[in-house]
Amino acid sequence: MIRTAVTISVGDELLAGETLDTHGRHLADALSSRGCRVLGHQVVGDDVDRIAGAIGSAAAEVDLVLVTGGLGPTLDDVSREALALATRSPLVEDADARRDVEAWYAGRGRPMPRGNLRQALRPETATCLANPNGTAPGLRARIGEVEIVVLPGPPLEMHPMLQRVLESLAMATPRPAIVVRASGIGESDAASLIESLMERDGELPVATTVSQGVLSARIRGRDERDVPRLEAMASTIEAAWRPFTFGRGDVTLAETVGVELVRADLTLATAESCTGGMIGAAITDVAGSSAWYRGGWVTYENRRKVEDLGVDPIVVERDGAVSKAVVTAMAAGAAARSGADLAVATSGIAGPDGGSAEKPVGTVWIAIADADGVEARCFRFPGDRSLVRSRAVAMALQMVRFRATGVQASLLWERTDA
Questions:
Q1: 7-49 pLDDT tens trace
Q2: Which parts of 69-171 are beta strand (E)?
């Protein structure tokens, strides 16, 4: 029975920071949802001895070692050699794997480079895992009673192969879990409101995380008997964090905005400067958003604000693009020109340059316009350019949700002195 695991991501580019290691989170989520506790995750460079050592050390502690990356055709892809060293098993060519690689190239009318034959190698005691989405078969072996699985690095190849592997393993019963989502409230403030639920010596402690302006509270039970308690705890968190909570599980803020707009029979338009279309992208990621999203403008240049949205050039010159007056005019112009019931507009300084003492990097104005007028708020978002923009998107969507539901509440990073 697989109850514990260690995950390992392989690649020099991960250690150098050239590529973001997203596999650790994906693997942890997939394993945890199946009742497997992940005891650790590590990143290892393209070094045979280090990868083999990481596999061996992990195998002494857990039931499953899950490795991703290093199965490509080049000489720096050495995970198969590392697995051979860790299992003390020589590399041999797998006939089925060779046929699969050759067929992959033949099916695309391309000659197969000789280097790809390396991908048909496996430790003698291991088996190959078919990869219909690429040329790198996975590998599965054992060290004693411990399962060792090596998967290709590209997500489009790794994710479906991981699913098949987990379905084939004898896993513990999945632990039930509920995740409550919120936006616009600080993590420390939110934690103080549910302090008793977060005590580590509690039977079902709550853990909070923050990403892209969204706060999540995760409660995980031990078995199905805990489900009623999980539901009660989730309801307690939602009540404590109201009105900032917007859903559970994988629901996005844009999805919830869509639900609220449909419920209120409202439509939405967007006018974006510093967010560069990110709000519109988040909205159109939602299936069926054409029922409530009219469209929008990306008016990054001031001229576009004037010509496309009708912003008075005198106001732009007097107050600057990042100002209450300009973002108010952007929202009003988007509402009028689209015919939407609501319009949201953003204008700010995402950085790393362009800030001043009066308007430092991270200053973003967001405005909502509807038939009752325009509401504009100033925010001071911390973080780099990417964080400023993603946080602006989250707060803009939350402002739309508040406006559609009649909520009045200050949001995280809002500046009331602006």
A1: 999 999 999 999 989 999 999 989 988 889 999 999 999 999 9
A2: 91-93, 121-123, 127-129, 138-143, 146-151
- Which residues, at least 6 apart from 197, have a Cβ–Cβ distance to it below 8 Å? 205, 206, 219, 233, 236, 237
* Homologous superfamily assigned to 253-415: CinA-like (3.90.950.20)
Cβ-based neighbours of 55, under 8 Å, separated by 6 or more: 8, 65, 67, 82, 83, 86, 143, 148
* CA pseudo-torsion sign 353, 354, 355, 356: positive
Task: Of 299, 319, 315, 296, give the one whose Cα is nearest residue 307.
Answer: 299
Could you give phi then psi for residue 398, rounded to 5 degrees?
Answer: -65, -35
- Could you say which of 3.10.200.10, 3.40.630.30, 1.10.10.10, 3.40.980.10 is the CATH number of the domain covering 4-168? 3.40.980.10
Q: List beta partners, residue 6.
A: 40, 65
CATH of domain 177-248: 3.30.70.2860
Q: How far apart are alpha carbons 136 and 158 in whole angstroms?
A: 10
